[in-house]
Amino acid sequence: MATARTTIASTRWERLKQDIRAAAGGLGIDQIGFASAEPFTELKHVLLRHREQGYESGFEEPDLDKRVDPALSLAEPQSIIAIAIAYPSKLHNPPKSEPGAYRGIISRSSWGDDYHAVLRDRLSRLEAFIRERVPEARIESMVDTGALVDRAVAERAGIGWSGKNCSIISPEWGSWIYLGEMITNIPFPPDTPITDQCGSCTKCIDACPTGALVGPGELNSSRCISFVTQTKGFVEDELKLKMGNRLYGCDTCQVVCPVNKGKNWTHQPELQPDPERVKPLLPPLLTLTNKQFKAQYGSMAASWRGRKPIQRNAIFALGTFKDRSAVPHLAERLQQDERPEIRGAAAWALGRIGGAEASDAVEEALLTEQHPQVREELDHAQAALQAQ
């Protein structure tokens, strides 16, 4: 009798699973997978080694047990549903970056509306679909601000394999996907993980601007350009130049991935980019007030760290481009900005650009600047200008 009841229950959950899979597209979900809710035991060893080597970004959930054990997010979990939503990789008619009108670039993961909100919306739709059929279901949904490691869940659920670039790579969608998951007490039959298909390819590792990909699937976050663009402090000279014109994020390891070739997804309306917003002119960014920044970028994921990192990165880009037309803007930041990181960035950029006007601005700032790190940047800039 017990066996019969178990069989009936298994059939019910398998049928619901297939119903969910059939409904996923209508719910705005591009790919869906099901996994067991067992702890990610092996992952904890990886995360611990990552921490010991100093490879963490500091943005992660600090409690490693919460990152690997679904039961610490939902009592007595039975399974996890993983979802993926595809986002675009190409700009239609992108504005040109040229002398006197240089532009920065925001990474593809932040081109449309904040993906956290989009994922939460899709998970809410899925949760409503399930509760309509199983009112007693217990569900805990999360996006990348949640405790679990999204990539580990997605890999176990068969969304894709974990690539050497630390992204989940879906055979259909590539790695241009956002990931989310929900833990539930419903015992869905699990899907089969996808076998690693990277093979001997190392294009992502070879192309990483800073060598942050220290091995297949192993990232030193402190050297990852995507992480550096989101920090708020001073940046070492080597990384400033490696950043190029990146204002937020870095797509290099995904752009070079052969699986991503030709993949560009335009069917999710909230995720489509405004070319002028994601590839903006650099000088106007320098004077944005908090209110103006929120109005222009507040709906994007790139806004979560505020305006300072993006303004600092815009200054680095102007210095990297050696844009002489930007010298008055940089001199103004050096003399008037209250934030030492911005003044320091302006000093570095002026030293890179060179010329009498840049030299005058640096000399004037040296007379009054008190912040030790800004003074250090000014000294380096002065030396560079004198060498020129």
Largest sheet: 4 strands, antiparallel
| Residues in β-strands, percent | 5-15%
How far from one another are the termini? 88 Å
Poorly predicted regions are none
Give the helices and strands as they follow along the chain.
HEHHEEHEHEEEHEEHHEHHHHHHHH
Rg, Cα atoms, Å: 24 Å
How many E-type strands? 10
Number of helices: 16
Mean pLDDT: 95
* Percent of residues in helices: 40-55%
> In which order are the strands of the major sheet placed?
1-2-7-4
What would you call the shape? elongated
Assign the structural class, choosing from mainly alpha, mainly beta, alpha/beta, alpha+beta, or little secondary structure: alpha+beta
Overview of the structural elements:
This protein has a domain at 2-95 and 105-184. The chain starts with a helix and ends with a helix. By secondary structure, the chain is an alpha+beta fold. The protein has helices at residues 2-23, 41-52, 64-68, 115-133, 150-156, 203-207, 225-228, 237-243, 252-255, 275-278, 290-297, 307-321, 327-336, 340-353, 356-368, 372-387; strands at residues 31-36, 79-86, 105-106, 139-142, 161-162, 168-169, 177-184, 213-215, 218-219, 246-248. It is elongated, with a radius of gyration of 24 Å. The model has no long low-confidence stretch (mean pLDDT 95). The strands form 4 sheets. A 4-stranded antiparallel β-sheet has the order 1-2-7-4, with helices on both faces. A two-stranded parallel sheet has the order 3-10. Strands 5-6 form a two-stranded antiparallel ribbon. The longest helix has 22 residues, at 2-23.
